[in-house]
Prior knowledge:
alpha/beta, 17% strand, globular, 267 residues
Amino acid sequence: MPAAVVNGVHLEYEVRGDGEPVLLIMGTGARARVWQVFQVPALVAAGYRVVTFDNRGTPPSATPAGPYTVEQLVGDTIGLIEFLDLAPCRIAAVSLGAVVAQELGVARPDLVRGLALMGTRGRNDAARTALNEAERLLTEAGVELPNDYAAVVRAFQMLSPQTLNDDRQASLWIDTFRRFPAEQSSAAAYLPLEDLTDRLDVLRKIRVPTLVLSFADDLITPPALGREVADVIAGSEYVEIAGCGHLGYLERPEAVNGTLIGFFNRL
């Protein structure tokens, strides 16, 4: 993969297709290659040039000492957009990536043609705050969960009951999580990024076209938190996809891709 040094950090990226650019921003600790399964082929087929990259802290991009800040990840993304001369570009992002994208929309609207925010939030509620604190305590204790156990926990956290209640699908997902365990090398550096302060008033400043896409069974960033973001961004669209959890872009790719492409085509 080609690489760029932006904002003082080595970032590896990939470009597929031709046409107007779409930048995809992944969530906490996940590899950009996840986008290659469903979203990149669909967007390329729709006529877009698609850029994916691994965030700082996610190999093969650099893993500088943490803790990281949202401002750093926003700076990395701005640097990559400018390095590749993408502006103004369409951006689709998920989870922590969506938090980065919406902050970019506040700070540098000149770089953005439209934002598609999947599984996003503008604040943490009590339940998500407690989950983040539990993750922090586990990391600080130096506990390394057995891979088979961690795979099952991820399945129950990330997937819809509809998927878990299908024996074939549940088995495939759990086997996938076993084969591709969550990246642990920068877990401690990423933890502060999940302690999101209330940014809803700040997000009111976003003026670029925005789609907020929530996944109905998402336990990590539930639809109620996504709708709050849509409610404060003037003129935004809100869509909720049924039958999927936090990994809705992988559980229901046809519905998600159709929504993304429809939104981008209208810009």
